[in-house]
Every structure is written in C-alpha cells, then in structure tokens.
Design brief:
single chain, about 450 residues, alpha/beta, 15 helices, 16 strands
Length: about 450
C-alpha cells in the first residue's frame, strides 16, 4: 500500500461534502498535498502507514475557512476611526491615513499582521483587494496562505498609482506579473466601487479582467446613500447600472450587496455573480443587513468576508459565522433561517464556490487540496458535543483552533505560527502604529 504523508485520526470530521457527512470517529489521510481518503475507522481497524500520524485527542477536523473579502494592509488602521458613518470614516480618516502611511514597507507589515491573525484563527484562503498588490503578493507568498489578490482601481491618486489614468494598466501589469509565480496565489482586479470609478474605468477594468481570465471584484450597494446617489445619477440601482455596463458575470464578485431589491437579485442570479457577505462590518458601519437568505434561495454563490480590520475590527470567520446566523434570525423573526449547516457552508465550500475554487478547496474530499483545521474540543465552552455544525457557529471561536494545514503543510501547530516570526511582525506593527498615532 502507498505510504501516506499524514494521517489524522481520533476526531470528529466535518466533511462539508455534498451530503455534509459528519464522521465520529473520523480520519483523514493525506498524500502529496492532497486529501487521499476521508473515512470512519471501524473498531480495531489499523490506520494506514504514514510518515506522520496525528491523534487529535477527540478534536474536530474541518475544511480551512475561506474569507472572501479582506483589505490586508488595513490591519494597521485597526481602531483608528470607529463609530462613524462610512462616508465620514473613508473621506475624513481612512483615505488621508492611506495617503500618509501606505508605503511598500508598511503594506508588507500590515499584510503579515493580517495573515498571521487569519492563520492562527483557522482561515486558510482569503480574497483581498487593495493597492500596492505586488507588495502584498510577495508577503503573502512567504506565509503559506492561499489567496486571491486584487490590485485596486480607483479614479483618484492612490498608493502606487499616483496617476489615475494608469489605474487599469497598473492592474493589468500586476495580473501579468503574478499569474504564474505561485500555485497558491491568484491575481485579480479590484474596482473600489461604482461611486469612485467612472463608467469608462469600470468598462476598461472589466474588459481587462475578461481578457486575462481573472476575477473582477467590486463593492456594490453597501449603503442606502450610495443607492440613492446612483438612482439620481443613472436612473437605476447600482446593480442595474453595472448590468447595463456589462460588468456582471460569473467572474464578478460583488461585495456587500446590502441595499438590493428583488429585481436586483434576479439580475444577480441570472448573470451568475457571487457575493461576499460581511455582516460584522455592515453592522459596525450601520450600512444595513443584506438579504442573504434571498440570495441563497436564488442559488447565488454567497460566502463570508470579514472586510478589513479598519471596519470590523478583526479577521475572525468564527465571528462572522455567528453574526451571520444570528443577525438574520433577529431581522426575520425566524429562528430557522440561516441554520448552522448553511453558515458553515458559507465559510467553507460556498466561499470557495464564490471564488471559483470549489473543485480544489472548501470540503474534505479525496482529491482536493489538504487545507484543513483542527479545533480543540477539550474546552468548557465546547463540552459536551451534540451537534458539530452548531458548535462551530454558536460556541467555537478562533482561539480554539490548534492546528492548521494548507496544501498538506503545517502552518500552525499547537497554536504556534510556523511560517512567520510572529514576535517580529508584532514589533514592526506596533512601531508603525506609533507613527500613525503621532501624525493622525
């Protein structure tokens, strides 16, 4: 028999496969970075021969979490400007702070800080949109996380792109540079929003994304004010406006989509777009509550995102799962809506589907990449265990993650980050924070 690289056993395994099998006891074998087998060993059944055998001690094994909307360097602005409206937060605080402090060196520090937080909290894949994306990519490549990285496009001078007329050209160059540098990095193009990008910019950026065969990301209908302005300017909603421009298709990731109506949802379903739902950011900025149950009912791929640390203020998908489940129950006065299984799927396989990566990640199935996490269930708040999905959504937190595996390689063991010098990252981030505080 073929010798495995790793066998993980004595666990409750949440597969998130098509039938959402939960195996207890369960085991996973891994060979050459991919999952070889997921099964429930019978009594006395010997384990396969392996270079490494991990007894989880009754832990919970599940697919790595997929965070489909981040702004990685913005961890440097965590807590800088809170309890403000989106417009005031952006225009009076974030945009000025970015102009002063977003440099290649600081982008590297902020990216490493964010990735460290995500890996330790069980996130194995993220989708990012920001400026100086090449600097982000270089940092991400060294950390071991899987990522979709979008170069930002906006019709204003931005970090790394002082001339807005070159914004799309710069994004295209980023994609060309990074499309084959790492199997774990997928480049993308990220237009900030319809209210910061002209129609011509939107068309050019989407055309470039189509030509290059990459994902196009965009914030859409995040606030009521945005929708009202679009209706005054274009005579329709942002979703309809983007549809008329030819922006929406199966390679478009719409972020937020809070203020949409039934016609918008019909357009979104028909065009095949995916949605990044960011409940905590939407709540904190008082943007509103996206009609996620309606998205799911329409068959739209919808995953969970944290947004950036400047508007959340953390990168915990466990927090987003809990918020997504409870927020919609309270809004709709229905305790059955957004059940635990649905929300776990959004944080794993549905997030992967939204990124076009569900054939490779998002569930524990033979042939998929060995991206998985192990949750320590030997905690008071996780005892006893009756229902694994319920535990993950309503009781577990990022601090309960003890081991993280990406592509068959350990990136976190026993709660320790293996791919970065965490003390150095924290020291550098504190130093940048002192500079920002002194000049804000």
């Amino acid at each position: 028999m073929t010798r495995m690289d790793k066998v993980i056993h004595n666990a409750t395994v949440v597969t998130v496969d098509e039938t959402f099998r939960v195996l207890a006891p369960g085991a996973v074998s891994i060979k050459d970075g991919t999952i070889h087998r997921v099964w429930s060993p019978g009594p006395g059944q010997p384990l396969p021969d392996a270079k490494e055998i991990l007894d989880t001690g009754g832990g919970l094994v599940m697919p790595g979490l997929v965070n489909i909307h981040t702004h990685l360097p913005m961890s440097l602005f965590r807590g800088l400007a809170d309890d403000l409206s989106l417009a005031q937060w952006l225009n009076e605080h974030i945009f000025p702070a970015e102009a002063k402090h977003i440099t290649p060196q600081n982008v590297e520090t902020g990216t490493r800080l964010s990735v460290a937080e995500m890996l330790l909290g069980g996130t194995t894949t993220c989708c990012d949109g920001y400026f100086l994306a090449s600097d982000i990519a270089r940092s991400v490549k060294e950390t071991g996380i899987r990522a979709v990285l979008g170069q930002g496009v906006i019709d204003f001078p931005a970090p790394g792109v002082p001339d807005p007329k070159k914004n799309v050209t710069h994004a295209t160059a980023f994609v060309d540079q990074w499309r084959s540098q790492s199997p774990k990095i997928r480049p993308s193009i990220f237009c900030h929003a319809p209210y910061t990008c002209s129609d011509e910019t939107l068309r050019q950026a989407k055309s470039a994304a189509r030509d290059l065969g990459v994902m196009f990301q965009i914030h859409v209908a995040e606030t009521a004010a945005e929708v009202e302005k679009c209706r005054r300017t274009n005579g329709c909603s942002p979703v309809k406006h983007l549809a008329r421009l030819g922006i929406l298709d199966e390679n478009t990731l719409m972020i937020h989509a809070v203020w949409v109506d039934a016609d918008d949802i019909r357009i979104m379903a028909d065009t095949g777009v995916a949605i990044a739902h960011c409940p905590e950011s939407n709540m904190k900025l008082a943007s509103g509550i996206a009609p996620v149950p309606d998205f799911l009912r329409a068959g739209i791929a919808c995953g969970l995102g944290t947004d950036g640390c400047a508007s959340n203020n953390d990168l915990s998908l466990f927090g987003e799962m809990r918020a997504a489940a409870m927020l919609h129950k309270a809004q709709r006065l229905d305790p059955t809506v957004m059940d635990a299984v649905t929300v776990v799927k959004m944080a794993t396989i549905e997030g992967a589907r939204a990124l076009g990566m569900d054939r490779a990640i998002g569930s524990l199935e033979a042939g998929k990449q060995a991206d998985l996490i192990i949750v320590d269930l030997n905690r008071p708040h996780l005892t006893p265990l009756y229902n694994a999905p319920s535990h993950l959504v309503y009781a577990a937190g990022r601090a309960d993650v003890c081991h993280v595996l990406i592509g068959g390689q350990w990136v976190v063991r026993n709660g320790e980050l293996l791919t970065m010098d965490l003390a150095d990252v924290l020291s550098r981030a504190r130093q940048v924070g002192r500079v920002i505080a002194a000049t804000s």
